[in-house]
UniProtKB/TrEMBL annotation:
The lineage of its organism: Eukaryota, Metazoa, Chordata, Craniata, Vertebrata. It comes from Heliornis fulica (sungrebe). Residues 85-189 form the Cadherin domain. The keyword Calcium applies. This is CDHR5 protein. One of its GO terms (cellular component) is catenin complex. Transmembrane segments: none annotated. One of its GO terms (biological process) is adherens junction organization. PROSITE patterns: CADHERIN_2 (PS50268). Keywords: Calcium, Membrane, Repeat. It is found in: Membrane. One of its GO terms (molecular function) is beta-catenin binding. SUPFAM superfamilies: Cadherin-like (SSF49313). PANTHER family: CADHERIN-23, CADHERIN-7. The gene is Cdhr5.
């Protein structure tokens, strides 16, 4: 079962089976060995009696991998290394959100990749939390605000996901929080109707011109009262 080279035997009358190299649980969860015995040395010309025995070996998973932040992308065919993308979110300046922040590509979430063990994960902010503006729920990973942000500077938080049973099994994920001005008004077009014209035979990506001024490209503009200078 593709486990050649992993197991070996030593001893004559009371042999012991041992591992020659570590097994990968992602590749092997069980294997079968065929033990062959004979009562004469190999090469003997005397009558030799033989017997065989089947040994079924179940392979148990051990705690070998640190937590993975999800979603993540596998970078090898064995699916033993998974790279997560940074989380991103945004908050309004001078406002405190009363709900957990919405992040992309999803909420903060880490798992134990030793999936048959599935050890409990806890979360903690270990960097980037200037003035202690943010908190993370140790159990759920939900990110919340303690106070309003007074500066337009972005935050780059470092979140640690740690296995409860082994603090040496941890991973660090990043969360970029952009601080923006609150938007109370939707954008709107400066004109309800735009009229343009074009010519037969023009190459793709050629300009569409204003209907009342064929020498000027047609310009479609939208404005937002929350950002009057943009």
């Amino acid at each position: 079962q593709d486990t050649d080279g992993y197991f070996a035997i030593k001893g004559v009358n009371n042999p012991e089976i041992y591992l020659q190299k570590a097994l990968n649980y992602d590749k092997f969860i069980s294997t079968t060995l065929l033990l062959y015995a004979r009562d004469r040395p190999v090469g003997s010309t005397e009558t030799t009696n033989t017997a065989t025995a089947t040994i079924n070996i179940l392979i148990e998973q051990t705690d070998t991998k640190p937590p993975w932040f999800l979603p993540c992308t596998f970078i090898n065919t064995e699916k033993s290394i998974c790279i997560s993308s940074p989380y991103t979110g945004r908050v309004n300046i001078s406002e405190v959100s009363m709900e957990p922040l919405t992040l992309q590509p999803g909420p903060i979430y880490a798992v134990d990749p030793d999936y048959t063990l599935n050890e409990k994960i806890v979360y903690n902010i270990v960097g980037g939390n200037t003035d202690q503006v943010f908190s993370v729920d140790a159990d759920t990973g939900n990110l919340t605000m303690n106070k309003a942000v007074t500066s337009p500077d972005s935050y780059l938080l470092q979140i640690m996901a740690t296995q409860v049973n082994n603090v040496q099994k941890y991973s660090i994920g990043s969360v970029e929080i952009k601080v923006i001005n609150k938007s109370d008004n939707p954008p709107y077009f400066e004109s309800k109707v735009y009229s343009g014209m074009t010519f037969v035979g023009l190459a793709p990506k050629s300009f569409v011109f204003q209907a009342d001024d064929p020498s000027s490209p047609l310009m479609i503009t939208a404005v937002d009262a929350d950002f009057p200078n943009v």
